[in-house]
Amino acid sequence: MRTHTLLTISLFILLLISKPTSAQSTADEQAILNTVDQFVTALAERNRQLLTSITVQGSLNISTSIGASGDQRIRIQNYTQLLNNLSSEGPALLERYWDPTVLIQRDIAVFWAPYDFHVNGEFSHCGIDSFQLIKRDDRWLLTNLSWTVERTGCAESPLGPPA
């Protein structure tokens, strides 16, 4: 009987321990989405300071597209180039994503979502964002950004037209 009671207590403790892990995953997922939202805001506001605060210095940024002749194009930017592309003046930028998938293992994560991109209120392109993140000092930071650039064949965004 005593063994049965100890087993029951052990199972109960395991259940209690596993609940915060699930809650923590939800909290981490929300924190990751907040970091991605800050990235989108940094683009829209051309806010280099915000971008710097959510990215790891030394990050790598890669976009892929298909040229007019059908050739694959790969653009690789280092951390400094990414920041320099976000000058204080320029056209209005709007990136929107939906249906994100977030995968988390301890202190690394992946964000994956379709997006559309608008320049000065006009549709520019769509694609897939694939961002890698790390958790450092209880904050999720972008380490590497990859995305596709699709200029044709884009499905209509479920978000509707940009506001």
What is the gist of this entry?
This protein is α+β, with helices and mostly antiparallel strands.
Show the helix and strand layout:
Elements: H1 2-45, H2 48-54, E1 55-66, E2 72-78, H3 79-85, E3 93-97, E4 101-105, E5 108-119, E6 122-136, E7 139-149
Parallel strand pairs: 1-7
Antiparallel strand pairs: 1-2, 3-5, 4-5, 5-6, 6-7
Helix pairs in contact: 1-2
Describe it for me?
This protein is of the alpha+beta class. It has one domain (22-149): Nuclear Transport Factor 2, Chain: A (Roll). Helices cover 36% and strands 41% of the residues. Strands 1, 2, 3, 4, 5, 6 and 7 form a 7-stranded mixed beta sheet that branches. The longest helix is centred in the first third of the chain and has 44 residues, at 2-45. The protein is globular and about 45 Å long.
SS field, number of helical segments: 3
Beta-strand fraction estimate? 35-45%
- CATH topology-level fold name: Nuclear Transport Factor 2, Chain: A
Low-confidence parts lasting 5 or more residues at pLDDT below 50? 10-21
Number of strands: 7
Give average pLDDT, whole number: 87
Q: SSE string, helix = H, strand = E?
A: HHEEHEEEEE
End-to-end Cα distance: 66 Å
Biggest sheet, open or closed, and with what strands and sense? 7 strands, mixed
Broad structural category: alpha+beta
The tally of structural domains comes to: 1
Question: Which CATH architecture is right?
Answer: Roll
CATH class: Alpha Beta
- State the helicity in percent bands: 25-40%
How many whole angstroms does the radius of gyration measure?
20 Å
- Gross morphology: globular
